Amino acid sequence: KPKNRLPPGPWTLPIIGSLHHLVGALPHRTMMALSRRYGPLMLLRLGEVPAVAVSSAEAVALVMKTNDLTFSSRPSIPTMDILACGGKGIVFAPYGEHWRQMRKVCIMELLSSKQVKRMEGIRAELVGNLIRHIADTASTGAAVNISEKVTRLSNDVVTWAVFGSKFAQQGEYLRTLYDTLALLGGFHLIDFFPSSRLVRWLSNGEHNMKRRYSRVQRIIADIIEGRHEAKEAAGSGACNTNDDDMLDVLLRLQQEDALAFPLTTEIIGTVLFDIVGAATETTGRLLEWVMSELACHPEAMAKAQLEVRKVLGEDHRAVITNSDLAELHYMRMVIKEVLRLHPPTPIILRMNQEDCKIMDYDIPKGTSVYVNIFAVSRDPKHWENPEQFKPERFENSKMDYMGTCSEFTPFGTGRRRCPGIQFSSSLTELTLANFLYHFDWMLPDGATPASFDMSEKFAFTVSRRYDLHLRAIPHVSLKSMPSK
Ligand code: HEM
Prior knowledge:
This protein is of the alpha+beta class. The chain has one domain: CATH 1.10.630.10.
């Protein structure tokens, strides 16, 4: 067999390969810098694991569109495999019949337009609570920790969508989920030397992950048991499928037993973990970066505020709902520009199920593929002044984030594209419109846009390194804040 022609890559060391280029750095930025030197397809040897980094729109189109089916699996990584739970969920599951079934359930039942609509009143209530809380903080003259508030808001919305209103184990469930996700974002030697028994013996990454994940599954099993008991106590007359949260929907499908792969408690627990994990980290991060960029660009902030206040009227509207938002074109351009500069998941993980040739290079079956969408959406070949925050670049442009344009794919593209776009956009737009309508925002004392720290922290998603604190000055009279 002729020798494979592999993509070029940075110099390697014995045993650790290219790991020394990446350890301790922000991987999306380091990979971007390396790819500018070695090309849009770059071979990395992460310990004993061969990986290819994809860093241009042309390469994204070939990998995620032309060869979508070939590259629609996820790599097998020891700590991640524990969360994949033998392929029972969605996010980490390898491509196959089981994933296809769960993806269909996700799109048709859990994240359907009906479910997003069902959450409308709840979103408005939770955003209203936050606006009131910010107004209270503003009246004391203290700064608001935006990072913390938007993370909690997105947690509350998604847990409500999944489990209904507050449930007894919510605190414990979210704490364990966050611990598990934090562990996933960490560095584990075993992920780079999966065949080494010595590393497995020395490293505690897998052990810790198993312990935390089994706690998550136990809590879910308790919640499900409680739900069954409550249903029995309420009797059959209490069924109203219009009010079903995601757990109710899955339990109904379990009872109907019409799926090719019957839903077990473990499968339900895995899917719900995937959805809560995928939703909370990303939407909170996006809102955090939107407010950071606007605070550093007062002219864009003023323009967005003017638009919201003009479209919604200056008559001190108390509650803004999703149906009010259709005309907020500039605000949507701001969101796109932030997704371009700060995609919450800057690297998408894929794996090819077959040998494949891309740009004349061979990508052997089973290679881990790191699609660096961060590098792609800052590529000077496609973006003028790519490092500059300029929402106006989307003016008169048809470019959206639905995966049609390979140079801008913050939600991925192809078969594995994010199924939560509508869920996420409706919360992002509603929250931002309320923030802009009700308050003027200022950097905390002493900070200027030029000196403001915008450094990043990578842990699977990219957040601010330091929480964002802003001072809120109510724009409308406090009397017109959404009432309790
Ligand atoms: C700003 C918000 C969000 C961003 C930027 C984002 C981004 C992404 C990306 C890049 C992927 C991988 C796509 C690929 O492989 O091509 C993904 C997958 C996924 N996302 Fe999101 N996401 C967001 C919000 C959400 C929300 C709110 C939910 C659920 C309520 C969600 C559920 C999922 C699921 C289940 C997958 C796995 C899909 C699969 O593997 O088939 N995401 N997301």
